[in-house]
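Readers of this paper often ask what the protein records in our data store actually look like. The remainder of this section carries one protein's record, kept here as part of the documentation.

:::
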Amino acid sequence: MKLNNVMQTMQKVLIIDDNPSVGHALRLLLSLHDIDSEFVLTPQAGIQRIHDDDEIALVLQDMNFSTDTTSGEEGKQLFFALRDIRPNIPIILLTAWTQLDVAIELVKQGAADYLAKPWDDQKLIVNVKNLLQLQALQIRQQQDMQRYAEEKRHLEITADLCGLVYQSRAMHEMVKLAVRVARAPVPVLITGPNGSGKEKIAQIIQRNSLEKTGPFICVNVGALPDDLMEVELFGAEAGAYTGITKARLGRFETADGGTLFLDELGNLSASGQAKLLRVLQTGEFERLGSSTTRRCNVRIISATNADLSRAIADGQFREDLYYRLNVFELKVPPLAERAEDILPLLHFFLGGQASFSPSALRWLQAYPWSGNVRELENACQRAKVMNDGGPFEWIHFGLEFPEAKKPSSKILVEPTREMILVALRENHGVITQAARQLGLSRQALYRRMEQYGIADA
C-alpha cells in the first residue's frame, strides 16, 4: 500500500500558533506534500476545533501564546486540554529552546514529538506523514475489529455454538466453517491436539445439521480392544458370547437417523479399520452372532490428534478409510496459538468475573498450555479450591513452566483486548491504575484502547 493512498484515507492537520506567519508557512509546507491542514491563532480556538471536527487527525501546537511569555505553561495546558477531548490524537510540539524541558516532559506524558523553531522542514514532514500513516492503519484495524465483532455476534445469533467460549479469529474462522459444513451431509474429520475441543466442534456440527433432531452418539474407538470393537459398533445377538442373554444394539444402530462421533480415530486397530470401512462403503453391517444384514443412515464425524498422513505412509492407517472419513477436514488450533481465548476461558471456568493479580494474569497468558483447554479447565478447578478469596494468584493454579519455555522473572506479554477490558473494569475505569496493572504507560494503554476500539472509560 502506497503512503499517499493511506494518507488519503486520513484527514487534516490542525496548526495552533499565535503567529500568523508560522501558521501560513506550515500550511504551505504541508500543502506541498498533499497534506490538508487548517490554522487557528489561540488555544481556545484549537480546543473548539478538536471538539467539533473528528476529521482532524494530528495537531501541531505552539508552546506560548501571550506576549512576553516563554515558560511553556500555556502550551502545557493546551496539550492536556486537547488530550482530555481526544486522548489518542498525536500532538507535535513546536517550541523555542527556552521551553525544551517542558516539551520533554510532555513527550513523557504522551506527546508524539517536539521540534524546535525554526523547524527542519524535512524532519517535520517525515514525522507528520509517519503519524498520519499510523493513524490510518489504526483506524483500519479498528474498523476490521468492529466488523469481526459484528460477524461473531451474527454467528452466535444464527447458529447453535453449544456454549463454545472463544475470542480469537483463528477459532472463529474454524467455527464458521464448521457451521457451514454442518449443513452438507458429508463425513467430517476434526484434527487437533488433545484437549483442544474437538468433541465440542463435533457437537456444533451436529446441532447445526439436517440430523440435529436425531441422536448424537459418541464412541472412543481408539480405546476399544479388538474383541469389543465389533460389539460396541455393530451390536451382538443373545448368546453370541458368554454372558450376553439378550440382543445388544451397537452404536451404528443407536445413531441411526443421527450422528455418530468416532473419537481417537488414529488409535483404531487394523482389524477395526477394516470393519469400519465396510459399513462406511455400503451402509451395511451384521450384529455379532447374526447373519442378518442390517442397514443404517448415519452422519459420521471423526476426530484424531494423530498425523494420519504420516500413519498412512508408515502403513498404520488405511488410505481408503482416510478418504472415506476425510471428505472435509476441520483443524482445531492449539490454545497456545490462540492466546486471545485464554482470558474468556479463565472467566468461564472460574464462574464469571474472576479477578487476577497482575502477575498471575501475565503468567497465565505466557504459559504454553500443552494440554490445551482441558489443562486450563483442570487448573481452574484447582485454583477455585486453593483460593480463599480475593484475586487469583499464579500459585493457585498449580502450574509449572517447562524448563525450556520458562520465561524471565519479568514477563512481557502483549495485553489482549480482554485483558485490557478486565483491567479497566477492576480499576473502575481509572486509566492510570489499569495501565499500571497491565505493565504499560498511560499513553501506551490509550494507544491499545484505540487499536482495539475500546471507549475511554
Observations:
- Residues 3-140 form a domain with the Rossmann fold fold (CATH 3.40.50.2300).
- The chain is about 45% helix and 10% strand.
